[in-house]
Amino acid sequence: MHALDVDWDHPTDPRPGPRLDHVRAYVSTAGADGHLWHGVPTLLLSTLDRATDRAVRTPLIYCEDAGRHIVLASAYGAPDHPHWYRNLTAHPEVRLQVGSATFTALARTATPQEREVYWEMMTALWPPFDDDRAAARPREIPLVILERVG
């Protein structure tokens, strides 16, 4: 399935719990409630699920630089990459909601040089990412750059 054929408007959301509550508040208020989570900016990332060919939506902390959105695939320091990251490595075309704006983007893993710069930006924004990095070892937490298409 090509990402253009995905029903981006009806993604699968997280299981019931705080993440689902966050996503529902974000969507129902066009980001007015949910864009800032614990004082940090979040976006909603929809990826094409490799197994089901359905869009899957995930809330993530992000920073922005030169119009690009940067996120970390930390998975709270888990030993494996999160599902959404494995999805976007297979299908890099994604859908983002940032506040009230919704748009298509292309995802890619940061280069080592970009990683140095953006890791510091992300941990300045959310210091627990350093704890995630320590817990994830030997896994390197991917830093992902999302660039708007069009």
Write the SSE topology.
Elements (H helix, E strand, L loop, with lengths): L17 H11 L7 E2 L2 E9 L6 E7 L1 E3 L2 E5 L10 H8 L2 E6 L2 E9 L2 H14 L2 H9 L6 E6 L2
Antiparallel strand pairs: 1-2, 2-3, 2-6, 4-5, 5-8, 6-7, 7-8
Keywords:
single chain, 150 residues, alpha+beta, Pnp Oxidase, Chain A, 4 helices, 28% helix, globular
What features would you describe in this structure?
The protein has 150 residues and is an alpha+beta fold. The protein has a single domain (3-148), classed as Pnp Oxidase, Chain A (Roll), CATH 2.30.110. The chain has helices at 18-28, 83-90, 112-125, 128-136, and strands spanning 36-37, 40-48, 55-61, 63-65, 68-72, 93-98, 101-109, 143-148. The longest helix is centred in the C-terminal third of the chain and has 14 residues, at 112-125. The chain starts with 17 loop residues before the first helix and ends with a strand. The mean pLDDT is 95.
Low-pLDDT windows of residues: none
Class based on secondary structure composition and strand pairing: alpha+beta
Distance between the termini: 21 Å
Strand content: 25-35%
Summarize the structure.
The chain is α+β, with helices and mostly antiparallel strands and 150 residues long. It is 28% helix and 31% strand. It is built from four helices and eight strands.
